[in-house]
Design brief:
Helix content is about 40%, strand content about 20%. The strands form two sheets. An eight-stranded antiparallel β-sheet has the order 5-10-12-11-7-8-6-9, with helices on one face. Strands 1-2-4-3 form a four-stranded antiparallel β-sheet. The radius of gyration is 28 Å and the shape is elongated.
């Protein structure tokens, strides 16, 4: 072994480095190198059977530095492994995986920035400024037969489930006389990062008998049901596609609650989102959704 930690290689590589020397060259700690070895991210070139000492090739330095740089992006180790493996096959694919990860980071940070601003306004006591953006009205909704799908879901899974469940229910509605009104989702309890509802997707249909026949024939495989929702009055505010994102939609719900309380009215059931437009065809400023509460 030389003074700088090099040893003669026994496999044709004349420069095997001790873990300490390789850590210094790659700018990683020995502890990190041991962790990456256990995870299969960066295995040593040779492990002495008697002592257990790890040795690395100088040619592994670039991979080690790549791992270190990816970790500085707070990239999870599993994603680091995907990018590093892709580098060995196709650099463009590795770059694409990195770009996809970073797009997700920027989207999350943008959402957190908006949430921080929302909380700042609330904490400063200026919530009325925020609620003033929403116009609250009432509407009378007639009795309806609805086919429904219910699920316990956290906030991160909610948008995908809403889209999938409404697609399933609207497909089923074709055998139940067709859709008669805008689909909606009822929140029977809070849906957040810690609370999983449940939420209930609902599609009004024309033929109650056909709907019950559909359910009896296997419609319940997705936790579905058929029920008659009574006539009711809703207090609601209509929001744009951009406002559906958190935390804007939270402000919309709170604005309706404030409106109800200010008039001495009483809520008569769980809140809901009524989808009044084609989501895919709508632009960011197009109205797409009513945030609503039933009234007594």
């Amino acid at each position: 072994m030389t003074e700088d930690g090099r040893v003669d290689g026994n496999d044709g590589d004349a420069e095997l480095l001790t873990i300490g020397a390789f850590a210094a060259r790659s700018r990683l700690s020995a502890k990190a190198l041991r962790l990456y070895d256990r995870l299969g991210l960066l295995a040593p070139a040779h492990v002495d059977e008697a002592s257990g000492y790890r040795y690395y090739r100088a040619s592994q330095t670039e991979r080690a530095r790549l791992v270190a740089l990816l970790r500085r992006l707070d990239m999870p180790l599993a994603r680091v492994a995907e990018v590093v493996a892709a580098v060995e096959v196709d650099g463009a694919e590795a770059a694409g995986r990195l770009a996809a990860y970073w797009a997700g980071v920027e989207s999350r940070v943008a959402g957190q920035r908006t949430l921080a601003e929302y909380l700042r306004v609330r904490l400063s006591g200026r919530s009325s400024d925020m609620y003033g953006k929403f116009v609250v009205e009432t509407v009378d909704v007639p009795e309806r037969v609805v086919i429904t799908e219910t699920r316990h879901t956290l906030a991160g899974e909610l948008p995908a489930w809403i889209g999938a469940s409404l697609t399933r229910l609207e497909g089923a509605a074709r055998t139940c006389g067709g859709v008669t009104a805008a689909p909606y989702v009822v929140y029977h309890a809070e849906v957040s990062m810690e609370s999983d509802g449940p939420a209930e997707s609902c599609v009004p249909v024309a033929d109650e008998r056909a709907a019950r026949a559909w359910a009896a024939a296997g419609g319940r495989s997705w936790q579905t049901a058929v029920r008659v929702e009574p006539a009711r009055r809703l207090a609601y505010t209509r929001i744009t596609k951009a406002q559906v994102a958190h935390p804007q939609i939270m402000a919309a719900f709170e604005a309706v609650e404030q409106w109800i309380a200010a008039r001495g009215l009483t809520q008569a059931g769980p809140c809901r989102e009524v989808y009044v437009a084609d989501w895919d065809a709508a632009g960011p400023q197009d109205p797409v959704c009513d945030v609503a509460f039933p009234l007594k």
